[in-house]
Amino acid sequence: MSDLPQRTPRSYSLLAAGLLAVAAAMMVVSWRGFPFVWTPELLLAIAATAASEFFAFEVGGITLSLSYPLVMCVIVLCGPAAAGLAVALTAVPVEDIRRRRPISILAFNVGQLVISSCAGGWAYILLGGRVLQSASGQLTPFSAADFPNALYGMAGAAVVYAVLNLTLVSVGFGVYRKVSSWTVVKSALPVLPAHIAIPFVGFLMAQVLSLNAVALPLFIVPLLVARQLYQRYLGLRSAYADTIRSLIGALEAKDPYTRGHSERVSAYAAALGAAIGMDARALERLEYAALLHDLGKLAVPAAILTKPASLDPDEWDRIRRHPQVGADMIRRIPPLRDLAEMVSQHHERIDGKGYPAGINGEEMSLSARILAVADCYDAMTTTRAYRRALNRDEAISELLRGAGEQFDPSIVERFIEANVGEVMAESGEHLLPELSSQSDIVPEGG
Fold it and tell me: Given 143, 364, 372, 395, which residue has the most CB atoms within 10 angstroms?
């Protein structure tokens, strides 16, 4: 990614070296406990695992691939040592070599994946799972006697792999990019259930391979189809984000005092919505609406937006119309149409004295009430042409004074309890919501 540091931090290089050392030790222990024989079935599974990296794709600086269920398949077929070898082949894809990724990044990826897969393999065995390959290389399919212990083992492997994978990647991101590891954890939490369920696909793959290797494509093809559909979804989502950024850019070019305002309001609104308990879908739409809330100012002359003196009645009327103008513009963009209500209501008041429609608190959506608090807080703490910025305590006092009249008191209370303004100012979190990670979580540069 373009925003990667120019030099790899020394702490990250040491972390990568440490992970490689631990991974090597785990491979030795795993080989001694469960040596494997190079059977055609194992070769096919490893080849499919390596080939899956050609179908990997990137989301938010995280590389996702189809290798995860195949690694679990190798665990069931031949044990943790074979799985460690298989996953190591996926950790350094050709694309990373072509782009000349730093050695430390490649080492980190190899180390964390080998550790996760070997640990998952041992969890499978210790919780009752049976490796299908015997010491002579003979594959013996599961029978009724293997259940339910084999399923307990697979569940254990899934949990151990997922937790270790997520933990190590979170630490790697934190060390490399100097950001909170919790950011990565939050992005992955929504898909942890899927991460734990997918290994059972690998479990079935191993059973099919032990019976008839020709049937493996029956699993691979649906995975490729699912990957293609998800790629299309990501492309569409990216197009929405690009549309929003273009609109914001047009507004900021017109009014320099709003530069960064929309993104800060989005960050405050998202943090406040999360503190209130909004679900992921509602939070995403709230962030989009916050980014676009001042879009209607494109219809307001720049001379009015930047006027240092008091506005006359006609100029105030132009300003008061901007929420409705913005909502009308958004309604013309089908994927964003549901954001129009939030945008049109962000200057309404609980007491019904807001604009443009003068509706009261009962008629305002929850998202609009959140947006009203976030917008006013950022406006108050930002220097404008006509006044200086307030400090945090002064802005909080203004929010409390307006609670019950201008703002929803419960929203103001949660804003203060969650310390949203201070936390977001320190973390610098903003922009569009990141997509969640899944499968092998391999950080691009961390």
Answer: 372
pLDDT tier for residue 332 given thresholds of 50, 70 and 90 = confident
| 60: exposed, middle or buried (Cβ count in 10 Å: 0-12, 13-18, 19+) | middle
Give mean pLDDT, residues 183-212. Answer: 77
Q: How confident is the model at residue 436 (pLDDT cuts 50, 70, 90)?
A: very low
Q: Is the pLDDT of residue 101 over 60?
A: yes
90, 69 contact by CB (below 8 A): no
| Strand, coil or helix: 62 | strand
Q: Which CATH class is domain 10-215?
A: mainly alpha
The contacts of residue 437 (CB under 8 Å, 6+ apart) are 59, 60, 62, 64, 166, 169, 184, 187, 188, 191
Token pair of 221, please?
Answer: 């093809």
Give domain limits for the chain.
10-215, 237-427
Strand 57-59: give its sheet, edge to edge.
57-59, 62-64, 442-443
pLDDT of residue 34: 92
DSSP string of 180-218, one letter each residue: -HHHHHHHHGGGHHHHHHTHHHHHHHHHHHHH-GGGTHH
Report pTM: 0.54
Q: Does domain 237-427 sit in CATH 1.10.579.10?
A: no
Q: Can you name the residues that pair with 139 across neighbouring β-strands?
A: 133
Mean pLDDT of 245-268: 75
Of the candidates 9, 29, 184, 189, the one whose C-alpha atom is nearest the C-alpha of residue 108 is 9
